Amino acid sequence: MGEATTIGSSVSEDPVGRGSAATSGGVGASRRPVVTLTAAAVVILLLDIVTKHIAVAQLSDRGPVNVIPGVLDLQLTRNSGAAFSLAGGATVVLSLVALAVIAVVVFTARRLRSVGWAIVLGALLGGALGNLTDRIFRAPGPLRGHVVDFVHLHHWPIFNAADSAIVCGGILAVVLSLLGIGLDGTRYGDSGEAGSGAGEAALGADSRGVAPVAGDGGVIRADP
């Protein structure tokens, strides 16, 4: 004959406030990446708009302004292409691509749980919005406007703050991917490790001859 030991009086009882606190914490954790994404995008967009406004006001009708000899100049240009003055003349196509990128980022944000990926998407969103703002509101017209570029690193195409944000976001995305971190904040392979741990626990219980049995009053451990 084996003896039965009751562990706990009820597994369904929840102390007052614990369930609501857990729910509140879960909601807060799920919102944090979205807040981070939004904040990053807004900061980058404002930085891009302000720096372009200053560049147009201070650098128009002027030659390159040397900041670091042989390394960095400030030189105002109007770019009809993509980041770093690439794909010149494809302004309308690039405007549509930017709109598509913005739509994808907004859609992806719904399942975002990683702060790192929130920064990536915020950088991409802010950069895309920054250059798209130029293409919509600057001459020669909507979706055909030329983007303001003004930062010139020698031996590198002239760019702006939005371009820098897009590149930095892309680099961080590569780093997170190499680390195996997904959009939901989990690392690739975590579920397999968890399953392995559960299997080992079950084998350990079986080797001791202890089998858990569910009862009305709680969990009953049956010993042979």
From TrEMBL:
It catalyses: Release of signal peptides from bacterial membrane prolipoproteins. Hydrolyzes -Xaa-Yaa-Zaa-|-(S,diacylglyceryl)Cys-, in which Xaa is hydrophobic (preferably Leu), and Yaa (Ala or Ser) and Zaa (Gly or Ala) have small, neutral side chains. Its EC number is 3.4.23.36. Residues 17-28 have a biased composition (Low complexity). HAMAP family: LspA. GO terms for molecular function: aspartic-type endopeptidase activity. Pfam families: Peptidase_A8. The lineage of its organism: Bacteria, Bacillati, Actinomycetota, Actinomycetes, Frankiales. The chain crosses the membrane at residues 34-55, 82-107, 114-133, 164-183. One of its GO terms (biological process) is proteolysis. This is Lipoprotein signal peptidase. Belongs to the peptidase A8 family. GO terms for cellular component: membrane. InterPro entries: Peptidase_A8. Residues 1-28, 199-224 are annotated as: Disordered. Keywords: Aspartyl protease, Cell membrane, Hydrolase, Membrane, Protease, Transmembrane, Transmembrane helix.
